[in-house]
Amino acid sequence: MDEDALSRDDVIGKVCLTRDTLAAHPKGFSGWAHLTEVDPDEEVQGEIHLRLEVVPGPRARRLLRCSVLEARDLAPKDRNGASDPFVRVRYSGRTQETSIVKKSRYPRWNEMFEFELEEGAAEALCVEAWDWDLVSRNDFLGKVVFNVQKLCAAQKEEGWFRLQPDQSKNRRGEGNLGSLQLEVRLRDETVLPSGCYQPLVQLLCREVKLGTQGPGQLIALIEETTSTECRQDVATNLLKLFLGQGLAKDFLDLLFQLELGRTSEANTLFRSNSLASKSMESFLKVAGMRYLHGVLGPIIDKVFEEKKYVELDPSKVEVKDVGCSGLHRPQTEAEVLEQSAQTLRAHLAALLSALSRSVRACPAVVRATFRQLFRRVRERFPSAQHENVPFIAVTSFLCLRFVSPAIMAPKLFHLRERHADARTSRTLLLLAKAVQNVGNMDAPASRAKEAWMEPLQPTVRQGVAQLKDFITKLVDIEEKEELGLQRALSLQAPPVKEGPLFIHRTKGKGPLMSSFKKLHFSLTPEALSFAKTPNSKKSALIKPANIRAAEKVEEKSFGSSNVMQLIYEDDAGKPQTVYLQCRCVNELNQWLSALRKVSIGNPGLLGSYHPGVFRGDKWSCCHQKDKSDLGCDKTRSRVTLQEWNDPLDHDLEAQLIYRHLLGVEPALREKHRELSAGTEAGSVLTGPGGAPEDPLAQLLQVLRDLQEAHRSSPASSPPSEPSCLLELT
Fold first, then answer.
1. Measured between alpha carbons, how far is residue 547 from residues 454, 500, 697 in Å?
2. How many angstroms separate the Cα of 728 from the Cα of each of 24, 547, 641, 652, 655?
3. C-alpha–C-alpha distance, residues 395 and 374, integer Å
4. How large is the C-alpha radius of gyration of the chain?
5. Which residues does the UniProt record annotate as the domain C2 (predicted)?
6. 286 — phi, psi (to 5°)?
7. Separation of alpha carbons 185 and 30, rounded Å
8. Residue 23's pLDDT is what?
9. Which of 79, 248, 409, 486 is most exposed by smallest CB count within 10 Å?
10. Is residue 579 within 8 Å of residue 555, measured between CB atoms?
């Protein structure tokens, strides 16, 4: 799109990736995709409810009967945010049309048409939806085409059919409108009931508990058979699985020991993209993100708000960008460099100070993990010349792989809603470089790379001392204190989502007598609350357990976009609806996603709803006059966004680990043959029940069992929900 401040935004072009295209790229589609022209006849949406029958007619002839019942979620073609739809049915040279339903995207017709069937006729039945216009030509809303011969064989067919575009026109040549670079991956998984994954989860947990002394060292074998490109995904899945089992610290400790066992040089420790490094990155993002926001958020916000020109590299200084100061004279290069150094020193000092004060705010499991890392590295490199190595091991993750990346790309760490502009990006990059120098304990190699960073050296040296003191306090946590802190943090339920929303207030009858009032809302697993300001006293509005649906509202309902409705039961058990408006479409989707997640397990979730409002004597969406009508559109309670603070889904993580292990099963089987050949008898030991005691043999058996469970899982089994995860960059 091309944004216009005053008029409507202009369409530049589109990229369309079908499900088949994505399915052809199991590891994801990545590359440049040509923009193509946007043809209104191809931009269709929605479904139509039809009943098709072959019935006896007069004079021993057969009739094709088409009942056009209703449609839902049609494209809005008119300025009022609706359409005036009618349906055109075509067969064998004859055309019949339904009546026109004014101002509705959810029309109901309940009209029937009959066509005489000719023996052996190969012509298709075409059902088209159109938007009627009084002055200009009618707008196409989509079509469904049926094979009449198949209908004759089936005799009857009824259901909701997705409207398809008209792709009969010739396209303009690709490449004329530009291109978009995309990374898209679709993961379509059927998650089995929890019990199916228990053998796999128990086997992996037992290996972690045994540590490096375990008989099979399955974790080491998984790392060995995992390719570099898959390592981040596997690390994240394993980490989340063990986090849910309360074994994240033990899992990471095992990886630390494996990495230290194969590292001879202290300066190469945790510098590769090993399973330990990738797992620790994922761990900090999952367990430490809220902590990061508390420490780094205010500093990042200040950098964005100040928008100062900052540059330390003399070869990149642009005096013209600085403007004038003092007596309206341009600043000299030296003045620009000095002011930039002062600004960066202030930001760096503020960040280090915030970090130093944050020991108690750091999650107990993160502190305990860093304690294990610190101890393991000190045991491996105990000499005086390696005095800083345990500190650098901690900062290699805390500073180099967590804080610095978050400074350079705050949007990716959910610290800001938008990416920084060029000027702010440069300030953030220089600040991240300074943090890296502090994290490297002001190593000579770091200083030698960019000599122009020298003006920050006094603050960097002071920061090294502050950071070492901080790490010493951070890792000074005992088991008893760890459990106490964990319990205290678990009692403080952090908000799932919070921010300003506009709540609908009705002052009288009619659309002009309603308005939206701005309030600050906070959603936790216990309640959706509101207050006048973020710091004022909150009042509970709805319990998540009472939510029955969270859905969008048609734009025409209030003459406003980005409005959602929350359907819930009050304390008396009566259905109620509250309307809330968001500032933008992204915020609307985030709130809908959060509300759906906290209510996903509720009994009595609605299957349908009205996307309009009941005004006067009818629903604005489908024009039905019964206020208790079930609804004209389907709810989307399982359509959610993946967020960093999502609750863990243990079964999904187990399924993803199983899927990966299935992919490397040949390598695991080959490894097992090598290990078996190395034993004296060349056979596998078995336990009392005849089951193999060798963990690798057990793992291969578990994979076979899960494969069989997927094959034989009947449709009527306990809920095996297909989980579709679409990742788009």
1. 58, 20, 47
2. 16, 29, 11, 19, 21
3. 10
4. 31
5. 44-161
6. -80, -45
7. 9
8. 85
9. 79
10. no
